[in-house]
Amino acid sequence: MPETNICQYWPRWFREILDFQALCQTEGEELRVMAAFMEHVRANLFVQTMDEATTAEWESIFRIVPNPVTETLEFRRDRILNRLSMHPPFTLTFLYQRLDALFGHGNWEVELDYPNYTIYIEAAVEDQQYFSEMSITMDIIKPCHIVYISRPRVAGNFLLSESIVRTIGEWNYILGGWELGALPFFSGTEEEIIKMATQPSIQQAFLDQAATFVVGDIQSVRINGDIIITALSRSTVGNVGSVGYRVLREQTEEVNLIELLDKAGTVLASSAVYVPIAEETVAFRHAFTVKEGT
User: Fold this and answer.
1) CA 223 – CA 19 distance, rounded (Å)
2) Residues 6+ apart with CB under 8 A from 259
3) Parallel, antiparallel or unpaired: strands 108-113 and 118-123
4) Nearest CA-CA partner of 285 in 221, 226, 214
5) Residue ranges of the chain with pLDDT lower than 70?
6) What is the pLDDT of residues 82-132, one digit of tens each?
7) Which of 54, 109, 174, 246 has its CA 20 to 30 A from that of 254?
8) What CA–CA distance (Å, rounded) separates 84 from 207?
9) How far apart are CA 58 and CA 44, in angstroms?
């Protein structure tokens, strides 16, 4: 906030007059209001910080009909930024930039099927609004002869760490003098940490085997709390394991909850998503990365 106390710039004998003190206070308040208004104007010069009224003006330019009840101001700004960037030529690099902006770096994957003129975009979509904006974006930038197919993706990370601690052991009883169950026969007290968990030590082979175990422990998938799918495909490449399956449109019109279950039916992972089942069948893939960390 700029300096608004102008009394300090007046001669000292003016500051002692009550009329000038009141005038100074009034002018200072007016200056504070003007400074706040100038800051408001500056914020509206940038899409990331503009207010709702300015956002509505941009939406009218792009002929966007917003829904303030369900759409946040942050999403409306992101949508305008996305539309402002729609200038040809459209390239794969441009598409990758748009995917980073909508879903975040590393949360998507693109597969190009050149013989069949098809582009697959695999992304983690948890919000219907961003999914709809991605569909609109693809309709604008892709050539007419290219088919766009969305593949839902759920990603997860498993962190493994190792620590080594030296312990001091102590026998709690002597022969002939002990009370059953009062104390354990032997107690260990941690005395010194030999190897910290933050120090790398786990070998790649162990991470690969852990990824295989994680994938193999998943026996079924439950969709929206009541649809059970047991036909799963599994694959492991190094320390990254994947589980895939398909959801039919006859089963549900949209997926909003995915649960991975083990053999006993215990929920191993639960993900809130939004995926409309627009095609006859939609393929899902869960990717799990096992790495060392804390």
Assistant:
1) 75
2) 221, 222, 223, 225, 267, 269, 270, 271
3) antiparallel
4) 221
5) 1-4, 125-128, 171-183, 185-186, 188, 191
6) 888 888 888 888 889 888 888 888 778 888 889 988 888 887 766 667 777
7) 109
8) 44
9) 11
Q: Which of 108, 62, 64, 65 is nearest to 85 (CA)?
A: 62
Tokens found for residue 137:
């974006």
Residues 159, 210: Cα–Cα separation, whole Å: 10
Instruction: Report, in this order, helix, strand and coil percent for the chain, each rounded to 5.
Output: 35, 35, 35
- 97 neighbors 242 (Cβ within 8 angstroms): no
Please state, in angstroms and rounded to a whole number, the distance separating the CA atoms of residues 103 and 69.
22
- φ/ψ bin of 61: left (φ > 0), alpha (ψ from -120 to 50), beta (otherwise): alpha
* Listed residue (171, 169, 172) closest to 182, CA to CA: 172
What is the pLDDT, as a whole number, of residue 147?
Answer: 86
